[in-house]
Structures are given as C-alpha cells and as structure tokens.
Amino acid sequence: LKILFLSILTASSNGKPNTALLASRGRLINHLLATSDPLVIPATDEAVQVEIEFTIHNIELDEQERKFTIDGYFLRKWDDVSLRWNASDYNNIQEICIPIQNLWSPDVVLFNYQGLTNPSMSHDDAVVYSSGNVLHVPRISDSAVCALDMSKFPFDIQTCKLIYGSWVYSSLQLNISSTSPPVISENYELSEKWEIVSTKSKVETRYYPCCPESYVTYIMTFVLRRHFVYSCQVLIFPAIIIAALIPFMFLLPSESKERITLGIALIVVCVMQINVINNSLPKGYSTIPVILTYHVLTLILVAFSHPLNLSLQIFLKGLRKLVCLGDDTYHPTDEQETMSMRGKDVVVGVNDEKPPQTSGGNMDEINKHMQSLAQRDSVLDARQEVLAEWQQMAMVIDRIMFILFLIIFVISTISIFPDAFY
Q1: Could you write out the DSSP letters of every residue in 18-80?
Q2: Which of 166, 160, 133 is nearest to 147 (CA)?
Q3: d(CA 159, CA 181)
Q4: For the purposes of burial, counting CB atoms within 10 Å of the CB of 190, is it exposed (0-12), middle (13-18) or buried (19 or more)?
Q5: How far apart are CA 205 and CA 153, in angstroms?
Q6: Is the distance from CB of 138 to CB of 73 less than 8 angstroms?
Q7: For the range 249-257, what are the long-range contacts, defined as Cβ-Cβ under 8 Å and sequence gap of 24 or more?
Q8: Using CA atoms, how far apart are residues 220 and 110, in angstroms rounded to an integer?
Q9: In terms of Cα–Cα distance, which of 155, 227, 234 is closest to 416?
C-alpha cells in the first residue's frame, strides 16, 4: 500500500503546493501518455514477462451451480519499455500513478469462468516506475466451473481450479510467471461450509488445435473440505436417529398398531430427508452420495420389517394348524355345553341365603352341567396356555430380529459414516 501512495506524499514544509513538482508530474504524465499506446504490446526482442500473484479474502463453493468463487486481489507486474523516463528530467520523480485503461496491460483472463461473460478487472490505477516496471493490483471476484465429486457427501473434499492465461498472445509474445502460491489474507473471511485445506499454483505451457504456437497458463488449485460440524448437525445426526428407531420397532407387540404407525412415520421422515438432500446437490450428479445410500438402506429396512412381521404372524398361525392346535377362538363343542353356560348363570346368579329347593332329578342335571363347565374351563385354560406359549415364541423371534437389525444399524452406520466416529 505504501507503494501506491508514494506519489502523493509530497508537499512543501509550509503546507503549500510544490508548483515545480506538480508541473513535472504533468509533463511526465503527458510524456507517458504520448509514448504509450494501450492497444500496442511493448516492442521487445523477447516476450513480455508478466508476474502474477493472488491474495484471497473470501471463497465460496456453490454445489448446485458447480461454481467456485474467490474474492481478493490480483497482482500483475510487467515491464513496458515505452514507459521509461529519466527521473532527473522530472524533478527526480521515481514513480507515478496512471489509470490502467490508459496503458497497455496483459490480457490475463480466467479461462474456465462460470457465467455468460468473462468478468473484467476493475479500473484501478497502476503504479509506473521510471525503469518501465508497471504494478497493477486490481480487485477481483472470479467464479470458475468446478468439477465436483459428491460420492462421499457430506464428508467430501473438493478440488477446484482456476485457469488463467492470455487470450490472444502466445508464449512468443507474453510469458507468465509466479513466485508464490495464492496467499490467504489476514482479513480472510471464514466460509460457513468450507475450509481451505491447501492451495498451490503452477505455470504450464499448452497447445491448442487452432494454432501452432504454445500458450502459457497459470493454474491455481484449491483443496476444500466441508465443515464437519455443519454436516453433522444438518445431515448426519437426523439420518442416524431415524435409522436407530428401526430396531426398536421389534420391541413393540407384533399385533399393535403403534408398530405400523412408527414404521409409516419413519418412511415419511426419511423421504423428506432425501428430498432435502437432493435439493442441495448439484443438478444431474452422476455418483450417489453416501448420505443418500444410508437413507435408502433405512427405507429398505423399514419396508422389510413390516412384511416380515406379517409373514411371522401368518407363519405362526399356519404352524398351529399344522400341528393340529387350531386357532385361539373358543367354540362350544355341542348344544349341551352351550346349555351349560345358561345353567351356570342360573346357579351363580342365585344369591339367596337358603339353598334352592330342587328335586333329585334337578340335582343330577345341575351336577352334569357343572361337570361340563369344569371341563370347558380346563379346555380354555389349556388353550390360553398354548396361546401364551405361541406369543412367547413370537416375542423371542422379535427379540432376535431386534438384535439383528441393531447389528445391521451399527455396522452400516460405522461403515458408511467412518469420519463421524474417528
């Protein structure tokens, strides 16, 4: 910054303008504008050497648009022989500021830009030195196309490149060099989603089918990692909680409506999560992210648990019939047993202090009915005992399925989301 303002830090000791210095500046600017043509590349026997550097203030990666954006400063330095002067002829002025649009400047542009037009640099002033060296540090906001690999989303690491080069000048006319990789500014603004793992740059020569000459390009490479905390709070934890509820469905009674209700709720929530994740991914992505694989596996397990429960009930009922146990519903064996119920009601309903006056024939009939009721109660107790055994068997199978699904949940979670546990 000191270099950019050296030319204005001149004044007399009395605070009055130095008219001689101002006149020298005017003559120097007129001389430079007269000798320099912004449309003509400096005439030299060798290619113009352009040194470039980047200072990054902010980065952003838009996954849906596959757009990587950097904000910062783009330093360019080159020599222009037409801008040299003898400092002693101009009151010992060593450098001066001139608007860049009045000077020739290298057409170093972003090749893989994202947008309808290639962004142009700002019209800042350039610092011109008496040796002919020109320093231009424009502010930039460039957006480049970034090829994304979403297979490990949301634990993905993306590599984005920005390719700069001259649009019309070959390596015989313009050469690009760089002494350092992109510099992260002290005022760098942290991204909400991404952190910069590394940055590097290189200069390479390329050939194109249109032209026999080679062209020099400058390539910046940024390696970005998605913030772990953001991914866990928004994507990972909800997915794990949904999947963790599946094994506990088998702890509910197999005939209960709560099990079906929980399964339907898990399916609806899982579909909603898939829709949210799909809206945040690039359009037409070719690889399936691990988070979607996890949700699809959750849907499969939920969908498999309901037919499994229904099949288990049908199997147990069929097995009971196969072993001649019939169903669990009691039906009277004959009309006599049906009548015994009425007899029991009559006997039980008598609440008088004196026993009923009955003849000997009636007593034989009552005893006969009482024996039938006792036989019926024993049959009902036997059936209830068998039913309890089958229910116990169904509960044991549910516990086995609970353990099995719990093991599947733990193994799938650790294998699909290893970065969440290490």
Answers
A1: -HHHHHHHHHHHHHHHHH--TTS----SSPEEEEEEEEEEEEEEETTTTEEEEEEEEEEEEE-
A2: 160
A3: 15
A4: exposed
A5: 34
A6: yes
A7: 249/305, 250/305, 250/398, 250/399, 250/401, 250/402, 250/405, 251/398, 251/402, 254/309, 254/312, 254/313, 254/394, 254/398, 255/313
A8: 11
A9: 155
Pairing of strands 174-177, 48-62: parallel
Question: Which residues have CB under 8 Å from 34's CB, separation 6+?
Answer: none
Tens digits of per-residue pLDDT, 80-134? 999 999 999 999 999 999 999 999 999 999 999 877 555 556 668 899 999 999 9
What value does the CA radius of gyration of the chain take, rounded to a whole number of Å? 43
Q: Which residue has the tokens 């700002």?
A: 122
Written as six digits, the tokens of 217 are: 């390009």
Weakest mean pLDDT among 49-53, 148-152, 156-160: 148-152
The model's confidence at residue 299, banded by pLDDT at 50, 70 and 90, is: confident
Distance CA 96, CA 118 (A): 30
Q: How far apart are CA 417 and CA 290, in angstroms?
A: 8
| Cis bond before residue 238 (omega within 30° of 0) | no
Which tens digit of pLDDT belongs to each residue from 233-270? 778 888 888 888 888 888 877 667 788 888 888 888 88
Residues in the chain: 422
CA distance 76 to 136: 5
46 in Cβ contact with 72 (< 8 Å): no
Residue with tokens 């001149």: 10
Per the CB < 8 A criterion, the answer to whether 109 and 168 are in contact is no
* Closest to 108 in 3D by CA, of 123, 117, 92, 119: 119
Q: 96 φ, ψ to 5°?
A: -155, 150
The crossing angle, in degrees rounded to 10, of helices 257-280 and 290-322 is 160
